[in-house]
Structure formats: structure tokens, C-alpha cells
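ok trying this again, last paste got cut off
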Amino acid sequence: MNAVSVNVTEMSRNFSEYLNRVYYNSEHFLLVRGGKKLAEINPLPLNKKLKELSELLKTLPKLSDDDVTQFSNDIKESDELFNTGLADPWAV
């Protein structure tokens, strides 16, 4: 899977065209803004069977250790900010 880098502005101006290329041609795009990679647009894995899940998961992008730490910190921060005090009725 070789993703083609596309500037976010270019993608937004021609979104329908890029979306069609993803759907009909199974192309992959990497969105870039200011030289920084922001996101990927890939075709959905259609018609896959559950037994193929393990192989499919191996193809997903891996987070760096810094990304994992930042994600964990973001989750903790959002829990603190948005904690409404409501209890989970299904929690044991």
C-alpha cells in the first residue's frame, strides 16, 4: 500500500474526485498540511471474513511510543474535564 501525499487544501478542493479514486481504484492518500502528516484516506476492507481480522489488523498503522503516551494523556485529561459524576449502570 503506497499512499500518495496530498496537501489538505488540494484534497478539500477536489474531495469528490479523491473519494472516487479511493472507492473505485482502491487508491490510498496521505493528507499533509505544512509538511506534517495529518491523516490517511484508505478504502474500506469490504467482504472480509472474521478469520481474516488478525491479518487485517497487522496492516493498520502503528502508533509511536510518544503517540501512545500522548493518547493516554489525552484520554485522562478528557475524563477529568468531562467527568459528569454519572455512574455507569453496567459497571460492576
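PB: full thing came through this time. The two ends are 43 Å apart (CA to CA).
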